[in-house]
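step=encode ok
step=design start
structure_in=
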């Protein structure tokens, strides 16, 4: 190999041999090999300007071993096919620099190397600034190095910045990193330069685009890394450290007395946070000793209530009560709620799944009015096997929801019609709906009006852009209902419904 030092050298691959290739581009071209001795930790910038389509790659210690490759570049960003560029922080050692050509291309080139010394991670740890709880710190990783790997964010190969915080006593802790320049990753270590001492790692999820770690931390000193998911990514960020007592210090809407009111709407969302909340309620599915917030919902008519969490920083459970916090008045509990409720006032708790689970969340709920279902079910026309029935959904109400349309949300489907049939013995039922002017949905139900108990919908069929839907199901003796719905809120019109029952043994 040719010795290489900072500066610019000229060369030609015609002097080399075809013995190596880089991982970023297979090559049958000749290459020249240079050797670079790195005496201390340095940032090395390598640029090739060639009269051919160049490929530049770097190996450490073992010149002829492809597995020793550190980096490889074919076309420099914004530089075109005749330029290649590498920029890496190199630890002390011997490196081999390869100037190669794409396919069988080759010729003359200029290779430029520049180096700058880089401080070690231990030095950075000793200089790490102190974070103040509640104060947003703005910083940038431009010009920084990738010194700290993480257990999330793909290993966090971007440039990072180190900070420290201190706890005098056991406390709730949340650290958030926000950035519009990079995909943020934030991770916390007990010992700055010790990768296995990582305690928590977070990347964007339910926190509105922020990378967040949250949990209960013991007294001591910790290191926070503001990092990035993409390799070599660097940019500006905002870092926020928050702390709270173990029992919380109180948050708006955290108790039954000041429960936040959920507005009446067919479908809506709300953002909340249990970080500062105390433990006020518990449910059959968890929440004992965990922070919680409470909402109130006033239901004017018999309705179907569906609640879910669209995003969360920590694991939460949902619980609905007829009387706030009264386990005997609990009507539903779990990671999601789907229940039919009578008119009245209800309380919905968002509770931590465990005492150390708290943070921001997004709550989504739908309240579907079921008062029209009873009348529609009572007036449902009967179906006769082998006889086609013609009808229209124009002017009909939107009373039913189907699993294969609108995500089970009636407000996202079109007007519907309901029909009924009765089987005297076990039979295989064939149902088919054709709608020339809209996309129909076909739903088979064991009961008509929604109510508590097992799922009423037995089958659901839809064929997007097909103007028809078909389903087949073997059923036991009894009464059944068929709902013809629209795939979207605007799908409605005339349709024909075919029903056929064939005896099954």
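sequence_out=
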């Amino acid at each position: 190999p040719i010795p290489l030092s900072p500066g610019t050298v000229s060369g030609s691959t015609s002097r080399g041999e075809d013995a190596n290739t880089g991982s970023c581009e297979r090559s049958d071209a000749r290459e020249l090999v240079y050797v670079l001795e790195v005496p201390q930790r340095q940032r090395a910038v390598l640029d090739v300007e060639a009269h051919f389509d160049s490929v530049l790659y770097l190996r450490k210690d073992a010149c002829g071993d492809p597995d020793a490759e550190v980096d490889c570049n074919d076309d420099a960003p914004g530089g075109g096919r005749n330029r290649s560029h590498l920029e890496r922080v190199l630890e002390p050692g011997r490196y081999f620099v390869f100037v190669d050509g794409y396919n069988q291309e080759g010729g003359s080139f200029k290779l430029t190397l520049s180096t700058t010394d880089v401080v070690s991670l231990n030095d950075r740890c000793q200089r790490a600034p102190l974070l103040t709880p509640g104060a947003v710190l703005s910083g940038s990783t431009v010009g920084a190095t990738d010194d700290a790997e993480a257990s999330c964010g793909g290993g966090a190969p971007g440039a990072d910045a180190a900070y420290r915080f201190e706890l005098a006593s056991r406390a709730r802790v949340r650290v958030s990193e926000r950035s519009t320049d990079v995909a943020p990753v934030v991770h916390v270590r007990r010992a700055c330069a010790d990768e296995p001492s990582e305690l928590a790692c977070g990347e964007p999820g339910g926190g509105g685009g922020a990378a967040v770690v949250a949990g209960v931390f013991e007294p001591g000193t910790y290191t926070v890394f503001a990092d990035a998911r993409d390799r070599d990514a660097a940019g500006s960020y905002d870092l926020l450290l928050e702390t709270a007592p173990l029992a919380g210090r109180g948050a708006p809407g955290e108790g039954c007395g000041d429960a936040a009111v959920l507005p009446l709407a067919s479908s809506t969302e709300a953002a909340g946070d249990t970080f500062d909340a105390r433990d006020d309620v518990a449910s059959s599915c968890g929440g004992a000793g965990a922070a919680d917030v409470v909402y109130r919902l006033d239901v004017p008519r018999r309705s179907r209530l569906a609640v879910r969490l669209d995003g969360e920083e920590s694991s939460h459970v949902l619980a609905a009560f007829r009387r706030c916090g009264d386990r005997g008045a609990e009507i539903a509990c779990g990671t999601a709620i789907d229940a039919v409720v009578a008119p009245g006032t209800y309380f919905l708790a968002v509770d931590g799944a465990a005492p150390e689970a708290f943070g921001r969340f997004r709550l989504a709920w739908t309240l579907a009015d079921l008062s029209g279902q009873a009348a529609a079910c009572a007036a449902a026309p009967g179906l006769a096997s082998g006889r086609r029935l013609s009808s229209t959904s124009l002017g009909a109400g939107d009373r039913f929801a189907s699993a294969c349309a609108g995500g089970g949300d009636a407000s996202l489907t079109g007007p519907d019609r309901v029909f009924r049939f009765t089987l005297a013995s076990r039979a295989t039922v064939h149902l088919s709906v054709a709608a020339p002017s809209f996309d129909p949905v076909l739903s088979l139900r064991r009961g008509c009006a929604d109510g508590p108990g097992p799922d009423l919908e037995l089958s659901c069929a839809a064929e997007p852009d097909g103007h028809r839907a078909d389903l087949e199901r073997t059923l036991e003796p009894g009464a059944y209902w068929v709902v013809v719905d629209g795939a979207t809120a605007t799908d409605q019109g005339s349709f024909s419904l075919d029903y056929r029952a064939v005896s099954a043994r």
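step=design ok
step=annotate ok -> The mean pLDDT is 91.
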